[in-house]
Amino acid sequence: MTQDYIVSPAWLASQLDNPQVVVVDCRFALADTQLGQKQYQESHIPGAYYLDLEKDLSAPVQKHGGRHPLPNIDQFTAKLAVMGINFRETHVIAYDDTNSAFAARLWWLLRYLGHDRVSILDGGWSAYIEGNYPTTAAIPTPKKGHFSPQLRTDWVVDIEGVKQRKDLADTILIDSRDRDRYLGEREPIDPIAGHIPGAVNLPWKTACDATGHLQPPAAQKERWTALNPPEEIIVYCGSGVTACVNLLSLELAGIPNGKLYPGSWSDWCSYLV
Predict the structure, then answer these.
(1) What is the pLDDT of residue 257?
(2) Same fold for the domain at 6-130 and the one at 153-271?
């Protein structure tokens, strides 16, 4: 696996004193939205800052737009700056303890803003702890960074774009949720079960192995080539978060042009209620 996208706990432990590296703890639990913050306060990787999925990595929920809309860019980049992240300079390492589900959201957001120097800690917090690397409860002090985003606006597709393009021959729409949710057999969160017509299912969890480590590039490529993807790939999930793991998988597979429908099923079905 290339260090461009993935770093090991051993590598990260060797870089904790590197001023050009900023670590971000993204632990979160949808069933207990305070848990990630509590876990961070109890113990985290030395020097790591914390970003909350709902308070930092998302904007407030509206009638439409999904359960985790993309954050306000000015507010988000201000938070990045006080963490000492300098645009296109600082190497950001994101981690969580949920098969990279929330770390991948930060990974994708930074790249969407034009900052490519961002990686995922392979295996997350669990792998780091298993390696007996140092931890702390000390909260790092704010810093002064400079972050001037250059948005890659063509990386996102809204609901109208999905409607217009999902049935085109050169576009494939990927539903990243568990198969039973895709089939409408189970829906624990959103008011309506099912999927966007024409979507193909590729569960995000299969991008990782049983231990929470990301599959190697060859396995990632196999996931996608089995679908014979056309030129444009639009990815969604429940609320635009775990779909980012599939976008990471595409990068690891060396397949370009993956796009995100940020509102995802929660936005789509909000028009059906």
Answers:
(1) 81
(2) yes
Side-chain-side CA neighbours of 149 within 13 Å: the count stands at: 18
Q: Which residues contact residue 270 at a Cβ distance below 8 angstroms, ignoring those fewer than 6 apart? A: 63, 64, 65, 66, 263
Provide the residue ranges of all domains of the chain, joining segments of one domain with +. 6-130, 153-271
Choice among 26, 208, 237, 244 that is catalytic: 237
User: CB of 245 within 8 A of CB of 104?
Assistant: yes
CA dist 181 to 40, 42, 43, 177, 189, Å?
Answer: 31, 34, 34, 6, 10
Confidence at residue 4, expressed as pLDDT on a 0 to 100 scale: 83
Q: What is the CATH number of domain 6-130?
A: 3.40.250.10
Specify whether 237 is catalytic. yes
Residue 35 and residue 98: Cα distance in Å, rounded? 13
The domain 153-271 having CATH identifier 3.40.250.10: the answer here is: yes
A 10 A CB-CB count for 222 gives 12
Query: What pTM was estimated for this model as a whole?
Result: 0.97
How confident is the chain (273 residues) per 10-residue block, as mean pLDDT? 78 97 97 97 98 98 97 98 98 97 98 97 98 98 96 98 96 98 96 97 97 95 94 97 98 93 98 93
| Bridging pattern class, strands 200-201 and 118-121 | unpaired
Q: What is the pLDDT of residue 273?
A: 86
